[in-house]
Amino acid sequence: MTDIATKADPLADYGLLLRRRVFIVAALSFLTLGAFLLDVALGPSGLTVGETLQGLFFPEEARRSVTVILWQVRLPAATMAVLVGIGLSLAGAEMQTMMNNAMASPFTLGVSSAASLGAAFAIVLGMSLPGIPQGWIVAFNAFVFAFGSMALLQLLVRMRGAGAETLVLFGIALVFTFNALVSLLQFVASQETLQRLVFWTLGSLTRANWESIGILAVVVAVISPMSFRAAWSLTALRLGEDRARSFGVDVGRLRIYSLLRISLLTSASVAFVGIIGFIGLVGPHIARLLVGEDHRFFLPVSALMGALVMSLSSIASKMIIPGILVPVGIVTALVGLPIFFALILKRKERL
Amino acid sequence: MSVLSVKNLSVTLGKRAIIQDLTLPDLPSNAVTALVGPNAAGKSTLLKSIAGLIPSKGSIAWGTMDLQRATLADRAREIAFMPQALPGGVQLRVLETVVSALMASPSGQRPKNTAEAREKAAAVLIRLGIDDLTMASLDTLSGGQRQMVGLAQAIVRDPKLLLLDEPTSALDLRHQAQVMSVARAIADSGCAVVVVLHDLALAARWADRILVLDHGRLVSSGTPAEAITPQMLADVYGVSARVEPCSKGRLQVLVDEMFDRVAI
Prior knowledge:
The structure holds 2 protein chains of 2 kinds. By secondary structure, chain A is mostly helical.
């Protein structure tokens, strides 16, 4: 048996591959941090780098206008971009594995639209509970609707089989339905609530505040580790449901928990920034190209890619038209649509 | 030594009864049992209901374990099931798929760490003679290679009862022989192996016992010579055929002509 050692050792090759993936995770973390700082440093008010650094690290010495811009406008928006990127991209990655469909994402299958409808309801009906901030109630209602739409999609997959085209068409139908209902709500809403509603149809980071960031941060911090813990089961699920179950994976339970995670991540993201398209599609797509589908790497790299693409989109939204902040949802759509088309065309080729 | 016993089993998919009141002779450890029969005879359905993947009525027992009531974890400890195909479009290395078969197991059955799982997975790939595929991406493999990898995922968990659904359907002659000799070796080490096969000569060559299924019923069983007869081939497959020993004494099935079922 010792002569096996003289052959090239595949396990050593695999060790190298693992090390490369760890390096990719580290490199992406640094890039994301860099993009985040650049995002904070850039803006229509044209602060110098010195002013930015002083405002960030020694706020008590900086001018009041500088600290207000940094701490109440730029930092919340930049932080929100990172958190929303993580939330939507992680949700997209789990959805793609659950539905065995590379075109699945919260946006393309209408889960984001459902969440925005839930949020719109909460605002128009003025839902409130004593002692609970309204932000939480809006987010909770968004979650209820997102979960409902996810359950509906799961039901379809179960009933009709996971036919990729059927699922995507059904998702498009959901997007139109929920968007029409949001429009209806806008139509009947008062002038004041209308202002708050319009913002959902165009995803934007400008309304980010520390309270909503707190909520989203808690959701991301609680959900991500749970998601990462399911990494092996999710990887096994990629080999087919029957096979995963014969390994001892409780696929039914895995599905329910995954559904909950996807709904929570999506609704918490959408409730505060509106619908931001394609992040949940682009993040996992690039992650799959970089590290494959070992979910120990696929999930965190998807999350990091989402954060990076969102930060870069936020930067681009300030640069496209000098002096004007384009809603970030428009930028992500411009980045994401070509990738979505590429995925569709690639599918056709394979058939 | 445990024994697999199936009694009064009925399986209904949708509104169609696939298997009705099926009782099999006890299938012992240390033996390879081949399930044969025409398409849509209920072979895969039977295998899946033994694996607990589809609901069924009747009794299925593995030794003292009632498989109709066993938990997923209990079942996974004893039984491995290899489905017909691996899904396409999966971006995983061969080694990763075998490691995930180990690491996705219920707690208590998992290797202590991934390093141990990797060692074990690599050893299985060597045993199957596909260690050159260790780093290959699943998506780049041929149909036959994928079947070998699927087999690796099933046997890496050291099952006591191994259920193989057409493991040789996409394999060339050498790999057919290799899969069957691995099945044989696993049986000889104390495992019960149940394998769905289409190739009757292959079944006769490697299996200790053959069960012939048709329309969800057991129509013939026993040693290869007992189960495979010209009468059975006429009744079940609708062919006129000879069953003759070759120069080494192994059974060969030679099909002469089809009966015209429409005319009858």
